[in-house]
Amino acid sequence: MKYVFRTLLFVSAISSVFVGTSLEAGFDSTNDSKVGEKKEATRDATSGNLSTEARKAASRTERIFPQTTKALGIIPNLDRFLANLEKTKLGKLATDPKMEPFLVDFKRQLEERLFKNGGSLAISWEDLQAIGGGEVLIGAMHNGTRPASLLTIEISGKEAAAKALLQKIEARQKADGATVTRGTSSGVSYTVLTFPVREGFRQKFAFYGLTDKYLLACDQKTEFTNAIRRLQEEGPQSDALILSPKYDSILKRCSQNPALAPYNHELSWYIDPFGYAQVARDYYEGERQRGKDFLKILKEQGFDAIEGVGGKVYFTADNQVDIYHQTFVSISPEKKLAARMLKFPNSNDLTPPAWVPEDSTTYLALSWDISNAFESFGSLYNAIGGEEDLFEDTIESLKNEESTNIDLRNDIIRHLSNEIFSFTELKKPIVPDSESRVVILTLNDPKAAGESFNRIGSREPNFQRRTYKGYTIWEGIEEEDDDSMPEIPVLSIDGPGFEVYHEEEVDEEVVEMAVISYAVVGKHLVVGTTIDGVKQTIDRIENSEKPLAKRTNYQRLHTVLTNLNTGPKSFYFYLNGKTAYHTTYELFRTGKMPEATNLIGQALNAILTEPLTEAEFESDDFNPTVTREQEFDARKLPPFAEITQYLGTAGFSITSETDGLYISGALLK
Asked: How far, in Å, CA of 211 to CA of 188, rounded?
């Protein structure tokens, strides 16, 4: 799930993706024969009425992307996108003079990183603004053999600027060692850049062509020439992505909310999670695949039931909301093995209980069938461990081991209901672990649960018993070099922004177990990253004077989210932008981002960290347990207090539906 989850970061990084990626592309640079000059009628023998609706809705460039497309981002109108973005708080933040020194320097660093080794499509955001005004699409494809990326830009009225840009790209890449050749396909002349081979990576290419209205850039010849041919046809071919029932149903589901009917969406996107994971893996990993194939394991465990994810983003001009978004995660109802964990029953009330404090930086509530998830997890545990009965054997060993004597099913799982609540608070001064998190689970039988959890705490040497207001708290104690603490090998898959771990080369990489404290308080199990967090929660459960539910910004968000989705929910999330980003911001500004332990920081690390090459990985200096240095210098960022006016309240809710999860959210003004 780690790898599938991280593919969703493609959406967050969409502005950076415009510079492209360069993937393997064998080619012959001689002229192609003219293909597809005769326009043929659209073939839709397998798609029924779907193709008619999709054809009407699709733009000329959207329909050139084939069903082998694994990720696609679309800006319908770049001029409108930029104009409306400038009206949002995020747009105003980007134009604040205080941010200019950082943004100029960050742009320089980003371009150096992206272009230094050659092999990118080399079109920056500023280039895009100079030549585009209409539709922009960026897609990643995989034909089963090799991946490709394709960028299309509508350049009507800016043909001269587009030609000048291609000349600039050609000159810059030639200076960096690229060779230039020419070709022709379907009557369209194009340029081919062949880049020097970088150690540890495959040969890379870039193809550029100009038609009557569009600039096309691609890194694989077959997809490039196919795109030119499709662009000249009257309608989509039968293998077009827009004729895929999966693609059509996901984006159609994100077009049915009456609350958003008054607005034009400024961005739409689609991802085939496992398909895009394969694109990412093939680009960075190539022939470096070793050890266990965790992507394959997840597929075999049924997680390919997550068939696709897509959504739409709206920049609004109303008085309450800056940005709306809606997303649909398509999940097959027929789930097998570990994928049966994906069961999130809707709840009628996931609003914050009174003991969630008003100064919470984040609040999350979810409804999850925990008992079902526990039993379903067993087959995944076995597959990763490589033993058929490993899960049950582990349960039995914990149960029969004298030092633990824990019956996971009866001592823990059977006591937990479906409701889980979590909130974070900010501690100062700002350090990597400044965020204190509390998780609260509702108990089915509080008395029996209390006996079980007290017994577990008394047998665990790294817990100490404390008493507070008549409640027993088990405080986790961090001990160095304690052999009794379990060691957990990291399970990860190579790809853009992912850690590099290969079982055959690294005997063991260990993640320290988180130090937690917990207590049974009434009908709740309170788990905190600090004992102070547990104590404060006990105080609030007994008497809460300032709950989050009474905070004005929470109430505003709740009204907006209820208007977007009036039904029951399985997830509910709230974020206070004026505090939630503080830790990540200061760590980034002071060069300590790789040390981040919070969710936002780890997500940004995944995007901003350049993966290791084969040579770097096999170097004698490589040590997977050493924290890597921050990739970008952010010292020119202004102090956090100077930008808080641009950081608003945000949140989303999720409803479980028969065929997936519907997500609707907003960023308030």
From this structure: 7
